[in-house]
Amino acid sequence: MEHFIWNVNPNILELGPIQLRWYGLLFVGSFFLGLMIFNWIYKRERKDPAVLDNLLIYVLIGAVLGSRLMHCLAYEPEFYLSNPIEIFKVWKGGLASHGGLIGVFIALYIFAKRHKESYTWLLSRIAIPGALTAAFIRFGNLFNSEILGQPSQLPWAIIFERIDMIPRHPVQLYEAFSYLVIFVLLLSIYRKISPLFATKILPGVFLVTVFTSRFFIEYVKARQASYVTDLPFTTGQMLSIPCIIIGIIWIIWALNTSKKSL
C-alpha cells in the first residue's frame, strides 16, 4: 500500500540565522484571527472593542508561558530541571496545550481585574476563538513533523520523511479537524442562545469537547513524555481528565442555574 509522504520544509523563509516558520505564522496568525472574532463579539454585544489590543497581548503571553512551563514540567521534567536555561528556548519547540489553557485563564483574570471586565464573560467568549487557535497550532505541528501518531497501515496514514519512513496516524490532522468542528459548534451555540446563558455554558462545553477529543486521540499518538508510569493513561490523558470533569460540572451548574432563573 502506498502512503502519502510528508516532507514539507518547516521554514517559509531563511535569512541567515533568521527563520520564518510555518508554526510561528500559524500560531500568531490564529491569535490575530481570534482578535477579529472577538472584535465582532464586542460589537455584537455593544461593548467597546478599544481594549482588545491589550487583551491580545495578555492572552499571547499567558498562552506561551503556560504551555511552555507545562511542557517542561509535565513531559520532560528531568531534562529541563537539569538544564533550566533550556526552558527559555521556546524556538526549539515544546508547548503543551493544557498549560496554555491555564496560562490564558490566569492572563484573563489579570486583564479582567485591571480593565474592570467580567471574568466569566471573557472566559466564555474566549472559548470560541480558542478552539480555532488550537486547530491552527496542530496544523503548525504538522508542518514541523512533530507530535507524531503511532504506526498504521490505514489508507490515510502519512509518512513523515523528516522523521522516518514509517506510515503513521496523522494525529495532528485528527486534532485540528476536531477543534475546527468544536469551533463551529461553539460559534453556533453562541449565536442561538442568550448572552447570559452563553456566559454560563460555553466554558464547560469547550472543556468537555476539546479534552474529550484530546483524550481519545491520545490512544493513537506516539508517546510524548520522556518518562513511563504504571498508570494505563498517557500524560496527555491524565492532564485531560481533570479538564473534562470540570467541564461536566460547569455544564451541570449552567443548566441548573438557568432553570432556576426561568
Q: Which tags fit this structure?
A:
262 residues; mainly alpha; 3-stranded mixed sheet; 8 helices; 5 strands; 6% strand
| Main pleated-sheet profile | 3 strands, mixed
pLDDT < 50 runs, ≥5 residues: none
Please report the distance between the alpha carbons of the first and last residues: 59 Å
Please estimate the helix content. Answer: 55-70%
Number of helices, where a helix is a run of at least 4 consecutive DSSP H or I residues: 8
Radius of gyration: 19 Å
Mean pLDDT: 90
Number of strands: 5
Order of helices and strands: EEEHHHHHEEHHH
What structural class do helix, strand and pairing data support? mainly alpha
- The proportion of strand residues reads 5-15%
Sequence of strands across the biggest β-sheet: 1-4-5
Overall domain count: 1
Shape: globular
What does this structure look like?
With 262 residues, the protein is mainly α. The protein has 8 helices and 5 strands, in the order βββαααααββααα. The chain has one domain. It has a 3-stranded mixed sheet with strand order 1-4-5, with no helix packed on it. A two-stranded antiparallel sheet has the order 2-3. The longest helix is centred in the last third of the chain and has 27 residues.
Secondary-structure map:
Blueprint lengths: L3 E3 L4 E5 L2 E4 H23 L7 H24 L1 H6 L14 H19 L3 H26 L13 E3 L6 E2 L2 H22 L2 H23 L17 H27 L1
Parallel strand pairs: 1-4
Antiparallel strand pairs: 2-3, 4-5
Quick summary of this structure?
The chain has 262 residues and is mostly helical.
